[in-house]
Amino acid sequence: MSGAILSTHGLIARYGDFQALYGIDFEIDAGEAVALIGANGAGKSTFLRALMGLLPVAAGMVRMEGTPIGGTATDRMVQMGVAIVPEGRRLFAGMSVEDNLRVAMDQAERLGRKGGWSLQRLHDLFPILKEKARTPVQSLSGGQQQMVSIGRALLCQPKLLLCDEISLGLAPKVIREIYAALPEVRAQGTSIILVEQDVGLAKQASDRLYCLLEGRVTLTGPSAEVTRDAISQAYFGGSHAVV
Ligand SMILES: Nc1ncnc2c1ncn2[C@@H]1O[C@H](COP(=O)(O)OP(=O)(O)OP(=O)(O)O)[C@@H](O)[C@H]1O
Ligand SMILES: [Mg+2]
To answer: Could you tell me the CATH number of the domain that includes residue 25?
Structure first.
């Protein structure tokens, strides 16, 4: 067994009769950032959901620090140190920024997770969250909401942070701000799986990447070394023109 914080072998996931993942082999080491790229519908969110226990693992193995955990309930995954910034953010509408964050702090406390993240540290990372502490989340901009969503995951004190398209729909300046926070997260020793549609950004922000196509891994390698051609091929499949 390698020193992976999390690994999967032959992971299969389904939605009813529809098979979304066809045997994913994946691993991520402690402190590593791994990007997951691929076209719409490739299975990226499904993979994160399966890791987080939000979707059953139909077959295959998931290990966390060597221990098999496939199909573990979400609360237990949080307890083991996995947190997700979900697709579409999923904040509690009608609640303030701080109350949203407190839900995560309470969850971490209930599950006995301890770590270095506090409201104070989060405010240092994203100062706007302090300024907007009493503001209902639905009045925030998309970028500010994304910061709350990231903050909520960090307050679960994760060893492994799953980020599902944290740049989606945001202005370039805000994307830069959000991505600038990731090195600080990693400095805590937290590993990051980054689902990202922007391939350039995905490469920049990761050590290694995986490309999914129709539920299968079509490419994996060090982000600095995979070529544009290889990515294009893996992203669209065999015969598609290189963009
Ligand atoms: N709740 C669901 N019920 C049935 N099928 C689903 C469900 N969610 C996703 N799928 C299907 O599973 C496949 C993988 O979807 P998934 O959302 O994981 O893709 P993705 O790579 O995250 O795409 P995107 O970039 O659009 O977010 C797609 O064919 C999708 O239509
Ligand atoms: Mg998705």
So the answer is: 3.40.50.300
